[in-house]
């Protein structure tokens, strides 16, 4: 059996492994506790393999004129796929990445080096704690704040609450966008609650996912966007429809219907995202 570069993470105790794609040189998947968490194409950082990451990528493409540098904060590093994408599509962007696991950052930097000249600063620690310690100069000026936080295959409860999203929203520029990756399964109870929670903090919210997820037929990802200003997504439905994995933009009255009677999550009531079935993310590198 081929041994791939790996490390036992000091906080969670999970094993993180960098797995090369046997059929596509220069492409790698970061696997954490049996869950594929990131895909990186070192030669073509604009290539976003995972469906939900492409959907966030479309939002990044539309939030400002093409090629314009932005200020971005990423909560959750993974293999830094989206920071690489921002650097490739918007050169000169200033980016902050917050990651709980220092050993993960070290592994990624050693095996999947960041591009030269990228203005990407990595801060270690719990996303919510470090968010509260970011320089005051970032308050009100962040164009993009991505929340993609997982411990294994689940998002921890303390980064799903109204109080957390209020703090995150305080960093946004007037037209800045908060992008959140939400994992959920049948019934979409958690996703509906997250949409309700975001809508209680910011006035303009939209969700993107495929129709099978909307019909609550399978486990998967719902990408949510929120902003103080109307989302600049006039072109997004067309981009989603032409994607290799077509998806739907849910906004306005459709989003209100999607939320239904879902309750806003607070620090007192929030829960982590539901765990997927173990069979969903079976990989050859899985370890007990």
Structural commentary:
25% of the residues lie in helices and 26% in strands. With 288 residues, the protein is α/β, with parallel strands linked by helices. It has a single domain, classed as Vaccinia Virus protein VP39 (Rossmann fold). Strands 7-6-5-8-9-11-10-12 form an 8-stranded mixed sheet, sandwiched between helices. It has a 4-stranded antiparallel sheet with strand order 1-2-3-4, covered by helices on one side. Helix 1 packs parallel to helix 2. The chain is globular, with a radius of gyration of 18 Å. The two termini are 16 Å apart. Mean pLDDT is 93; it is low at 279-288.
Q: Tags for this entry?
A:
25% helix; disordered C terminus; Rossmann fold; globular; 26% strand; 9 helices; 8-stranded mixed β-sheet; 288 residues; 4-stranded antiparallel β-sheet; alpha/beta
């Amino acid at each position: 059996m081929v041994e791939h570069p790996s490390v036992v993470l000091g906080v969670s105790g999970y094993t993180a492994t960098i797995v090369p794609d046997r059929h596509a040189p220069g492409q790698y998947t970061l696997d954490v506790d049996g869950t594929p968490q990131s895909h990186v194409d070192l030669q073509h950082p604009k290539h976003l393999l995972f469906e939900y990451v492409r959907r966030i990528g479309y939002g990044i493409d539309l939030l400002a004129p093409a090629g314009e540098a932005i200020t971005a904060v990423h909560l959750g590093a993974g293999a830094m796929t989206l920071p690489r994408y921002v650097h490739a599509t918007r050169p000169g962007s200033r980016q902050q990445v917050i990651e709980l696991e220092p050993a993960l950052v070290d592994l990624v930097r050693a095996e999947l080096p960041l591009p030269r000249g990228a203005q990407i600063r990595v801060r270690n620690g719990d996303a919510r704690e470090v968010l509260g310690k970011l320089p005051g100069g970032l308050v009100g000026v962040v164009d993009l704040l991505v929340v993609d936080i997982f411990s294994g295959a689940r998002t921890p409860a303390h980064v799903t609450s109204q109080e957390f999203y209020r703090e995150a929203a305080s960093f946004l520029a007037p037209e800045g966008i908060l992008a959140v990756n939400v994992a959920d399964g049948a019934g979409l109870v958690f996703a509906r609650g997250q949409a309700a929670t975001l809508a209680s903090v910011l006035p303009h919210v939209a969700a993107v996912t495929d129709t099978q997820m909307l019909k609550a037929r399978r486990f998967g990802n719902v990408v949510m966007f929120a902003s103080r200003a109307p989302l600049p997504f006039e072109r997004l439905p067309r981009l989603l429809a032409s994607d290799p994995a077509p998806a739907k933009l849910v906004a306005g009255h459709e989003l209100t219907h999607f939320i239904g009677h879902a309750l806003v999550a607070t620090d007192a009531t929030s829960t982590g995202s539901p765990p997927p079935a173990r069979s969903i993310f079976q990989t050859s590198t899985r370890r007990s």
